[in-house]
């Protein structure tokens, strides 16, 4: 084979190779389609029209992603579990096969919004005494009103339910006859069927109770009455008078 024939063969091979890979521009589809809320799971799928058995390469903000715990790649899909605001950015992909690769896909911008925040308010907001009724109210910063509320305490990890002691009524947890054992941290979470599905609890409230009775001082003074000699015939039962005082 002459050198010109070899050159032609190499040219043919490279044209075939290019036809096999280059010219395929993948597209990236994202689910969910609209903005992602923190904590949600997002799938980015690299769609290549022709051929199969590609291996996929993903990039975020010019950095090639490794398929580690936070960015597992399963075939054509990159999954982000528990999305954080730091996952916001530009994503793109390409397919690799043998020695070749596809073009890079268009860049897709993933925006991650904070899930609505929930906080807890306590009434009465001043000192709460043991035996009193306390209301904890869940406040969710959101335009949606169709939340169902869940209550938690650091004393056990299960959701608090209405029973004799607790009453859960919409956004309010009522503790009747608060006891020292009710002291601790309380937080709430809202759930709904539409996205955003869940609120994020940004702070827990610390419920502390006071004993209703503070220090008491009891004092008494005994005074002996003066005897009147004129009326000595009828003796009073006692000539002592006791004055006493309780000071809170
Ligand atoms: C993401 O993809 C996985 C499988 O690859 C699927 O089980 C899951 O439901 C998908 N989640 C979303 C939000 O599309
Ligand atoms: C607690 O909330 C209930 C209704 O949810 C209300 O009737 C009661 O007055 C409230 N008590 C306090 C101490 O805020
Ligand atoms: C969250 O909202 C989506 C969209 O409405 C719904 O399909 C999904 O079942 C919801 N998930 C939960 C856990 O409620
Ligand atoms: C809550 O109260 C406990 C005991 O009173 C205290 O040790 C703890 O630091 C408090 N936590 C917060 C977040 O204020
Ligand atoms: C009255 O007081 C005196 C001492 O001040 C005491 O000895 C006496 O027992 C008292 N009388 C009565 C009836 O309490």
Automatic annotation (TrEMBL):
Name of the featured protein: Cell adhesion molecule CEACAM5-like isoform X2
Tell me the organism's taxonomic lineage: Eukaryota, Metazoa, Chordata, Craniata, Vertebrata
